Amino acid sequence: MRLTSAPSLLLLLTLAGAPTVALAQAAVVQTPYQRPKALFDIYLDHPAKMGAALYWLRSFVNPLMEAPYSLFNEDMSVIVVLHGTELVTVARKNESRYEDIVQRMRFYADQGVKFKVCGLALKDYGYTPADMQPFVEVTPSAMTELVHWQNQGYGLITPVVTDKKVSIDEIR
């Protein structure tokens, strides 16, 4: 009576005689970032999505401000261009409505991040520069501003903010 087939027996003997192998894990790298320059192009279909878009900014800035990099505004340059519905979040009259978002933007502005609003969009929404938060700069056009800074060597980052359909726990 044959208990195992030859290939199964070979596999069993191979595994039984194999030395114990430690499970490998992902390598952690410390890329030597030097004077990073980033340009965030934010154009959202709803101002409430600005909070999620700011997580993209956080994901860029915060790791660079922490050890081992400890970069600050003189070591990196970050520009955020707003030209969609999110520009209402930086209108002074809406500060209480978007208080958390404004506080986060103000924090990053204090760290040296430049927030710019498209002058054409500003007019479309019926605002003037006087209506904006003091940490905001008004540019002639978002499109010309984006091209200008890319020509200066800034890497373009366009946050994609989707409607979340499932929780992280559901897909983990």
From TrEMBL:
| Keyword Protease attributed | no
Where do the coiled-coil regions begin and end? none
User: What domain of life does the UniProt record list for this protein's source?
Assistant: Bacteria
User: Could you tell me which SUPFAM superfamilies the record lists for this protein?
Assistant: DsrEFH-like
Species of origin: Hydrogenophaga bisanensis
Q: Which residue positions does the secretion signal occupy? A: 1-24
What InterPro entries does the annotation carry?
Answer: DsrEFH-like, Sulphur_relay_DsrE/F-like
> What phylogenetic lineage does the species belong to?
Bacteria, Pseudomonadati, Pseudomonadota, Betaproteobacteria, Burkholderiales
* Protein's UniProt name: DsrE family protein
